[in-house]
Amino acid sequence: MSAYQNDINAIERLRSAQDGKWDNINPEYVARMRAQNRFRTGLDIARYTAAIMRRDITEYDADPSKYTQSLGCWHGFIGQQKMIAIKKHHGTTKGRYLYLSGWMIAAMRSEFGPLPDQSMHEKTAVPALIEELYTFLRQADARELNHLFRELDTARDKGDQVRARSIQEQIDNFETHIVPIIADIDAGFGNEEATYLLAKKMIEAGACCIQLENQVSDVKQCGHQDGKVTVPHEDFVAKINAVRHAFLELGVDDGVIVARTDSLGAGLTQKLPVSKEPGDLASLYNSFLYTVPIDTSDDINEGDTVIKQDGELRKPLRLANGLYRFRSGTGEDRVVFDCVNALKNGADLLWIETEKPHVGQIASMVNRIREEVPDAKLVYNNSPSFNWTLNFRQQVYDAWEKEGKDVSAYDRDQLMSAEYDDTELAAIADEWTRNFQRDGSREAGIFHHLITLPTYHTAALSTDELAKGYFGDEGMLAYVAGVQRQEIRRSLACVKHQDMAGSNIGDDHKEYFAGEGALKAGGKANTMNQFG
């Protein structure tokens, strides 16, 4: 017997026990409302999606072609439309997640207005967006199920039992729009206690996976900006522990932690960890510092710091702002060090922020990490901060040049130019771009591919196109031809915006509550009927 029918029977028994006082309650209506509200709390969502993510990780370990993907969404509606589109075009949400970008919260969701990605926005904006995203996804479930319930009623009214059974199966096997979310906690917004408190709020809102980076929280920079400052490993591990405690306290035992390192592009550290013996964690961290030898006390200036390395006294270079500099060329070694230590101290997945999308570069670091942690795997940012066209055209150019192929027809520095769009080089570069996620997952241990800011850019592009035409000669045709006509022909659910906002659900609820006396919005005069 289906869960839907079980609910109907359970409510029927409960109604029967009320001595007639609940006779106005229709058990099937209640069962429908329960089906439309499967996830009662954010913790229900976090536990459900954590199990999905763990299963996906296991499947990827067995077969790297089974990688996962997501797009960053800055509003609940954007996340909802993304998942509706995925179900429509691909038939299933399996392997598709949501990504919550700290950059987009800073740029789009702060009460201060648009901000740079430097953790200046309100920390409460992060769990608020998680909750908003899942509110819209739950509403997508309710809307789609509502359509099925209406179709079931129509089939029954017509006496079409075959159709009714088919719809009943769709209800019983309904695939929810609720999917895992990878949520960016930046550098933790303070000390480890602050990180723990914010992580709890994020998990309570529904997050099953939290991404944490090893920058100093109060001077945090976007991964694609200069001036990044990393923290010693002991500090980062304390925050990983804080997030894990939050998951366990709330009963999300499968919660996933993504440890992000910005060391490839970070040349500074805020403080020197205390080393207790040669070769310990602090000693290894300090070994990457730019230092100069001390021969006499004259080499030490007022306020200088002195450390002992390999049996000799050395002075780390401290800048005017009090920060210490790492030796140039140590970024990749520090990335490997960061990643191995994070995985050995409770992180589940890694995030390596690179300066370009190059499978070979990523694989070179992951292979070194896997020498110590064989199942290491990545969440990778397919970042809009990369010039993908130029990067891949230059990669093809460099490969051809290495092979001895004639590249005299191309100017490497100008390969972004449209004059190269129809060339063989551009076609191969596009194919490499198309295959980047497949190649990266197979060769570089990338379990999850995401684009941090795609819907930020698509919103800007589509608005620019509409504004150009609507306020120009096209007038209303710009909207009709460029938007509405496309919505209708592509069967976008949003063309019936009243239904998308819940008007049909509301009408049905009114009927549940008031019967034939319900005042509905969906009658013949509703203009939404024009769209079939």
Describe the structure.
The chain has 532 residues and is α/β, with parallel strands linked by helices. Among the domains are: 37-144 and 177-271 and 329-397 and 440-458, TIM Barrel (Alpha-Beta Barrel), CATH 3.20.20.60; 472-518, no CATH class. It contains 19 helices and 14 strands. The strands form 3 sheets. An 8-stranded parallel β-sheet has the order 12-6-4-3-2-1-14-13. Strands 5-7-11 form a 3-stranded mixed β-sheet, with no helix packed on it. A 3-stranded antiparallel β-sheet has the order 8-10-9, with no helix packed on it. Helix 4 (76-90) links the parallel strand 1 (68-72) and strand 2 (96-100). The chain starts with a helix and ends in an 18-residue tail after the last helix. The relative contact order is 0.10. Pfam families: ICL. Keywords: Lyase, Magnesium, Metal-binding. GO terms for molecular function: isocitrate lyase activity; metal ion binding.
Concise overview:
Substrate binds at residues 101-103, 223-224, 260, 381-385, 452. One of its GO terms (biological process) is carboxylic acid metabolic process. The protein is of the alpha/beta class and 532 residues long.
